[in-house]
Amino acid sequence: MKRAFLIYNPVAGQENPATILGDIALKLSEHYQLTVVQTKPDVQPEELAKQALKEKADLIIASGGDGTVGAVAGVLVGTGLPVRSSSTMLRAALHPTLITDRTCPSAGVPLGIVPRGTANAFSVALGIPTHLDDPTGFQNAAADVILSGHTKEVDTALVTTSEVTDYPMILLMGIGYEAEMCDAADRDLKNALGPLAYVISGAQKLLTASNFKATVHVDGETAEGEVAAITVANAAPPFSVLAHGHTGECIYDDGKLEAIGYVAEEGGVTAKVSNVVNMARLFSGVMFSDDPVQHEEKIFGGRYSDIKIECDPPQKVVLDGELLGTTPVRARVLPSSLRVLVPPPAAPTAEESAEVVHKIAEQEGVDEAVAAIVVDKLGVPAAAKVVEDSQQVADKPVVAPSTEQSR
Ligand SMILES: Nc1ncnc2c1ncn2[C@@H]1O[C@H](COP(=O)(O)OP(=O)(O)OP(=O)(O)O)[C@@H](O)[C@H]1O
């Protein structure tokens, strides 16, 4: 029987861990030789995860908030072979400065997650069910994801501040307003209010928020400016609006980090109030509103693999919801470095299958019966991807060689 370790933080979230984890442990024990261990104020998840690896764990499950999940994930990053998949090798070849020894640590021992925290941002970003999705069926849903064995390789990053070197990041780091907000949302406030704690602490911080000068070095280029907040994100749930940048998408498996700065308006008290009100909406308002947030002119940023940020005056850095240290800070992406158990994709419906068969038949000029055999062999998702890729090639504007030459 394979060995699984369940590492849980008893003080995370608002629910009783025994109720949730008892059922899940029972279900997992039917398939794994399961060891359940609990974090303590002086026994951190990293230590327990390292011990589990020493004991030849085939699977490590983290249960708690993003702090616990991130700490266990950090130990699992790169537990596979130095360079594994062809895409990782390709990225290593394209970005030789990314990792100094020119190898990418690859995903190895898979990470299972039983989200029991306040925000569970990593689980939400990856589509892993949380108790907020389904309070009654949560135990079953969480165990089913783990038992499905379906994994996804995701990027992570290493973050270095004045105080720590190469600290693993799974979600995002915040500098400025967001860092102050997370720092102020303490355990008692989170216990009492849940996710609302971040909104309350955010509101408190609005009163004292101030702008700062930032110098940002990204993939060999440098930019400078006055900002109120900077976010560097690897993965982010939809409600972390700023982390999604101006593209509206934070992609956790593209080998890049989404860096985004909130540009502070020049001016006096009115401008400052307008800044902080906008930030409040960006960070928290969307949790309670369906209104789209208009933030296009307020932000700058892009996707990078290596980001260095210096601030004047130095700013707090919050990483994955916990205070990490102060600027200067550097974040480097580690592409495809963590394997996570996620829900398997939903089986395609009969209509979806028929549509793909129809498109392949049309595109390739073959009979639908022949197309159906191809779709059956490839599987519907892979066949749909073939159709999509050929469509993209067909849609690309073609520049005639004669036009090029005549310029
Ligand atoms: N047994 C324990 N007793 C007290 N504190 C603990 C214990 N185990 C872990 N911690 C602390 O819990 C924090 C991590 O909490 P975690 O992120 O898992 O949950 P959360 O704060 O409820 O969730 P979220 O990050 O979503 O707000 C760390 O600061 C860690 O030191």
TrEMBL record:
It holds the Pfam family YegS_C. One of its GO terms (biological process) is methylglyoxal biosynthetic process. Residues 1-163 form the DAGKc domain. SUPFAM superfamilies: NAD kinase/diacylglycerol kinase-like. PROSITE patterns: DAGK (PS50146). GO terms for molecular function: kinase activity; methylglyoxal synthase activity. It comes from the Eukaryota. One of its GO terms (cellular component) is cytosol. Gene3D superfamilies: 2.60.200.40, Probable inorganic polyphosphate/atp-NAD kinase, domain 1 (3.40.50.10330). PANTHER family: METHYLGLYOXAL SYNTHASE. This is DAGKc domain-containing protein. It comes from Tetradesmus obliquus.
